[in-house]
Design brief:
The protein contains 20 helices and 25 strands. It is an alpha/beta fold and 598 residues long.
Length: 598
């Protein structure tokens, strides 16, 4: 199973990023690393261990006041918003030059014809494959440059991994900063939380993705956009003595890809009593809590009512994460429960709580209905003899739709309608929210009208233009993934989007496009990235130029929807693939067919 997952990871990443760069083992370029100060918490309290200090950093860099104001749904659909299309379509001027320029940019911003867009993607894949073969056949040497431009990447998620695969490190000095030194294949995270797969099967060291890029283990706490400096903190240990130390790193270009955290919507008790499902550590906590619940319920002198309360697993949120976790949990109960806890099966309950009237909002209605059917199907242990251990009409999973949570207590979940649900473990999988560093970057741009005017739409995400540049910046800061919002047409908060954005941006910079070409004549917006006039265009670029009827500027990022998938348990899954960007024609699969696609 581990080999299968690892292979799937590599194939998925190869397809999602269309990247085939190979990196040599040459020496890494130097990085700007300036110690700032140190916060010696360990000296103030010698009982704090390395693990506890890491928890201190995590807590103060994830706590957001008023996170209910930043609601972003995972898988939120594409929307058009012509009123804020990069401050281009609504600008007007009497200048004939500016008018011609605006028309050019308006034409470029239109989605490229789908057949041409697919040809462009195919050409990129072929070019990357040929480049990979060429680099394998001959040893690459870095060009003689006195100093490379410094690119700092914040985060090690899908966008960052795709960018690292695509960026030409012979041209740039690349440094990654993240508290996590590996890439995580998040689609298998729910499976790892119940033991279906092991953690190491779904992770890849970030240094293996690009061996010529530097890595610093740290958490970004502040970004000085004026001096182009990122301030960070990290746990540093000498023997058994650990401290939290600060450092700062300067950049020429900053790739902001920190992702998002789970949104609690300001509901009391969520952070104190619920498990999340974003990181490997979250999956470990869930696996430990799951076993603890069964072992507690197995102790003698407990009433059946108490055992049922302990073995009630609440999943709040019926989006892809919540449904996949509930499905993996059902598999655990069906497959492993009879082997280890046969006498406890009749007490197990899974309650999926959702505030909206449906599950899996991004999916077609027929697939939503299939998901409900799979979640609520009768439990079928592999050994038929265990069926007799369960009462008649036993229902393992209960869907509580139109049920908002008002408070989470130590052993009870209070719903908006007054009901209380006893539970042994609760997993919160309801929406995304911003990290403090994202809000800090937005605040540092509050004087920039372009950024401030669109925050009602971005909702705590950093607003970026169609070329992924942060609005209000000079083009030196770019955003990827869940931490950002393309204001000219919102995209779903999925790994697929982040991966394609990372590939696009890595290719743009590797081809020497100037992302900071200056301001338009009306001084209203940043001009699109311009190509290097001394470089011969690739075949893919020629296709793009034909599609946009312009080779003066870079084509904007355009998302290729490869479809959405969700595991529904028992070897079944849902698959929805859009054949056309309009969404008129879809290929839908469920059951074993859907599982094959998944």
């Amino acid at each position: 199973m581990r080999l299968l997952v690892s292979g799937t990871t590599l194939l998925w990443m190869a397809f999602a990023t269309s990247s085939a760069h190979a990196f040599s083992q040459s020496a890494r370029t130097s990085i700007v690393f300036t110690p700032k100060s140190s916060t010696k918490l360990h000296e103030k309290n010698p009982t704090l261990s390395e693990k506890e200090l890491r928890k201190v950093i995590e807590d103060r860099n994830t706590k957001v006041d008023g996170d209910e104001n930043y609601i972003t749904t995972v898988g939120e659909g594409v929307q058009d918003d012509g009123e804020i299309s990069n401050a281009v379509t609504n600008s007007s001027t009497d200048s004939e030059t500016a008018s011609i320029l605006e028309k050019k940019i308006e034409r470029i911003l239109k989605p490229r014809a789908y057949p041409l867009f697919l040809m462009e993607k195919a050409a990129i894949i072929v070019e990357d494959l040929l480049a990979s073969i060429s680099m394998d056949d001959q040893e690459t040497t870095s060009p003689n440059q006195t100093e490379k431009e410094k690119i700092v990447i914040l985060g090690t998620g899908w966008g960052s991994a795709a960018f690292l695969k695509e960026i030409d490190t012979d041209k740039y000095d690349v440094t990654v900063i993240s508290p996590r030194n590996f890439f995580l294949f998040t689609p298998m995270l729910a499976g790892s939380s119940v033991g279906t797969v092991e953690y190491r099967s779904i992770t890849e060291p970030i240094r293996e993705i690009n061996r010529k890029a530097g890595y610093l283990e740290g958490t970004a706490t502040n970004i000085d956009i004026e001096n182009k400096t990122v301030f960070c903190e990290s746990v540093v240990c000498e023997g058994n003595s650990c401290t939290i130390e600060d450092f700062d790193v300067q950049y020429d270009k900053l790739i902001f890809a920190v992702g998002a955290q789970t949104n609690t919507f300001g509901i009391p008790g969520v952070r104190e009593y619920c498990c999340f499902l974003k990181q490997v550590d979250d999956a470990r906590r869930i696996r430990t809590a799951l076993v603890n619940c069964f072992e507690r319920a197995n102790l003698p002198n407990l009433t059946d009512e108490k055992r049922e309360a302990i073995l009630t697993f609440a999943v709040i949120g019926a989006g892809p994460t919540g449904v996949e976790f509930a499905s993996e949990l059902r598999d655990f109960v069906e497959q492993d429960g009879p082997k280890y806890y046969p006498n406890l099966l009749k007490h197990v309950r899974i309650k999926v709580i959702e505030a909206s009237p449906t599950v899996l909002a991004p999916f077609d209605k027929t697939l939503q209905e299939e998901a409900v059917r799979q979640l609520t199907r009768k439990i079928m242990p592999k050994d038929p003899s265990y069926v007799d251990l369960m009462p008649a009409n036993f229902e393992l999973t209960e869907l509580l739709l139109n049920s908002g949570v008002s408070e989470v207590k130590k052993d009870v979940i209070a719903l908006d309608d007054g009901r209380e649900i006893p539970y042994g473990m609760a997993v919160w999988a309801a929406g995304n929210g911003p990290l403090p560093i994202t809000l800090q970057l937005i605040d540092s741009l509050k004087d920039k009208k372009q950024q401030a005017d669109v925050q009602s739409l971005a909702r705590g995400r950093i607003a970026i233009d169609s070329w992924l540049r942060v609005l209000g910046s000079d083009g030196s800061i770019m955003g990827l993934g869940d931490a950002s919002c393309v204001v000219a047409g919102q995209l779903p908060a999925t790994a697929q989007v982040a991966g394609q954005q990372g590939e696009y941006l890595g290719r743009l910079l590797s081809l020497n496009y100037d992302t900071s070409p200056g301001i338009d004549p009306t001084n209203k917006f940043l001009l699109p990235p311009k190509p290097n006039p001394n470089r011969e265009k690739t075949f893919a670029e020629k296709i793009t130029a034909f599609a946009t009827q312009s080779d003066e500027f870079a084509a904007p990022f355009q998302f290729l929807n490869l479809g959405i998938l969700a595991y529904t348990g028992g070897g079944s899954a849902l698959a929805q693939i859009e054949l056309l960007p309009s969404g008129d024609k879809k290929v839908k699969g469920s059951g074993k067919i859907g599982f094959g696609l998944w």
